[in-house]
Amino acid sequence: MLTILNTEEDITLKTDTISKGCWISLSSPSNQEVLTIADSLKIDLKDIRSALDSDEVSRLEKEDNYTLLLIDIPTVILKNQRAIYTTIPLSVIYSRENIVTVCLEDTPVIKKLINNKREICTYKRTQLIYKILYNSAKLYMEYLIKINSMRSYIETKVSTKETLTELYDLEKSLVYFKTSLKSNEIVLNRLLKQTAIKQYPEDEELLEDVLIEYKQAIEMTQIYYEVLDNTISKYSALMDYDLNNAMKLLTSFTIVLAIPTVISGIFGMNLINMPWSGSPSGFWIVNAITVALCIMCIMLLRKKKMM
Asked: How would you list the strands of the sheet with 11-15, edge to edge?
């Protein structure tokens, strides 16, 4: 989807034409839209398409006519009717006259700015870039809170294999978040050293908010990751404990059941002069001895806390 915004006389409106100072947003764009923007603004096609590759890493590259800023932003996908949090690339290409943003999907990071056109001024490129970064950090925080809430809910459930799988999915999401946030922080620090775009007085306060939000997001990710890792360790230990108890109980039953098996095997041999072979009560005597030995074995196992 191609969206073009332009600010004139402090009013930001959608437009169909590309002009000086406008912001071009490409969300899950078609091939024709990518080709049109690349040709109109003289941008290398591979740079526009870089954000359409989910494996691209965060970076800042300066070309002759523009600068490419690529960051990772959070997103949520559905897997087996369950929300899985991950990250996707978002590129911001800014030149002396325009800004182009490209993303694989219609992300809330961009959608929020487009829906609140009064809060943006397209020709103030530095401010617009900082607001994109700020929205990205806020979205990280929002998803981190949801991940922590999901962890708290899962902890109330009975420890099962499915429970552990859900926790592993959350841990994987936090690994993605932690890696992406650190990469974004490095790119942000490099961006601060750039002098290619004009700075406005109000940008300084916005920049401080961006830095604070990113630091908080990184700290929250680390804390939630450690808590989740401890939770997974606890659940793994509980499952191992239950498995050990089950194995111990089965082993005890095997020992007890081995007693009548051995005795019946001995007295089942066709040998002459077997004890009580000629007695009418021989069967009951052997059974009584077997039951007594089984009871003694059970008492011994219970004393050893095997049952």
From this structure: 11-15, 2-8, 23-27, 99-103, 82-95, 66-79, 59-62
Exposure b/e, 290-301, CB count within 10 A at least 16 = b: beeebeebbeeb
266: helix, coil or strand?
A: helix
pTM: 0.78
Q: What is the pLDDT of residue 39?
A: 85
Which residues of the chain are modeled with pLDDT < 70?
Answer: 158-159, 194-202, 307
pLDDT value, residue 197: 55
What whole-number distance in Å separates Cα of residue 25 and Cα of residue 171?
Answer: 32
In this structure, what token pair is assigned to residue 290? 């077997």
> Quick one: pLDDT at residue 75?
92
For residue 50, give both structure tokens.
Answer: 């870089």
Pick from 137, 125, 157: nearest CA to 231: 157
Residues 6+ apart with CB under 8 A from 32: none
- Token pair belonging to 258: 């081995």
Q: Is 101 helix (H, G, I), strand (E, B) or coil?
A: strand
Alpha-carbon span 306 to 211, nearest angstrom: 58
Rounded CA gap, 278 and 70, in Å?
94
**pLDDT score for 43:** 86
Question: In sequence order, what DSSP letters do the residues of 23-90 get, joined into one string?
Answer: EEEEES--HHHHHHHHHHHT--HHHHHGGGSTT---EEEE-SSEEEEEEEEEEEEEETTEEEEEEEEE
Using CA atoms in the order 223, 228, 229, 234, what is the torsion angle rounded to 10 degrees?
Answer: 130
Q: Residue 221 has what pLDDT? A: 92
Amino acid present at 17? T
